[in-house]
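Lay summary. Proteins are chains of building blocks that fold into shapes, and those shapes determine what they do. In this project we predict the shape from the chain. Here is one chain we studied, written as its sequence of building blocks.
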Amino acid sequence: MLFRFLMIRIVCFFGYCLLTSLGTACSRGEKTIHAEYKALTEAVYASGNVIPKNEYKVYVMTDGIITKKFVEEGSKVEVGQILFQLDNEEQAARDNAARQIFQTAQSNYGENSPALQELAAQLSSARAKFRNDSLQFARNQDLFASNSLTRTEFDRSTLAFSTSQNELTAAQRRYESRKRQLFVDLQNAQSQYRVNAKQDANFSVRSTTKGVVYEVYREAGEVVRRNEAVALLGDGEQVCIKLSVDELDINKIKVGQEVLVKIDVYKGRNFKASITKIYPMLNKQDQSFRVDAEFVRDSTNFLPASFVGLSVEANIIIAQKDRALVLPKTLVGTGDSVLIKVGSGSQKIKIRKGVENFEWVEVLAGIDENSAVVTK
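And here is the predicted shape, written in a compact code that computers can read:
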């Protein structure tokens, strides 16, 4: 190989010397091509994974220990179905205390309330005494008016009537005040009981949607903390694509653009999809943006939702032209310029680019199909 390489160098050297000795101009050795019309597609490359549609993680809302696990990977679930059951002794004690307080408050405010029965008896006695004293006062008024009763006896009956009236009013106020206080106690106990009941409901981790369990992160017997993910759920019939697009290309991406997708496990097949969502937050780890796409659902483009997490490669179609004047991209230099042959020499011309891909670039202005573009 070394010998062959040296021989080629020697031949080239003598050939160059021969051309020089003959006085051949370097410009005469330049090769040229002409721009030509082609169908051209511009696309942005992206990679990603197949994920379940409506994917979401299930989080626990309280600390506890998983006592029961009702689902496995692949389990189908309905809305409201219990996935995990948690237990917490402290919460159970609080719940029991709140229940007892609520029951006591209900009893105290009820018809047979021990707290109200005594006050009700006092009120009844005060009402009976007032009734008797009021009748006696009325009789004494008539007697006093007819001079049949002394002033002292009349004043005594008047005082008794006034006293019993005040005692009845006080008894009524004590009864109503105590009843209002017991009602407030009942409302507070009921509110606390409801709060504890709601917290108690957090110990039953439920599904909020109909779908499939794709991952389970915790097992029975393990301790979990509030806001810890325990499972991954998603649609059981449809999947979508999560793509990573380089930050330099994100401005070219728009919702609705067509996507051509290749999936490793489906070799030889290309799937069609469409951009559905563009996330605004840059992933600083790989300097990319997340973009979601959904498969176009038809009989020839069906993708079963049996598996998720599959790796994909995608080309997002940015622009397409059926007839574009193009040049090889390698001929376009700094400042979007190309070298064209003019007479016996050459001249650098700036062009205006249009659609482009890895191989070709569209020429919108600067040269036409008759221009001889120098290749080297």
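What the prediction tells us: The mean pLDDT is 83.
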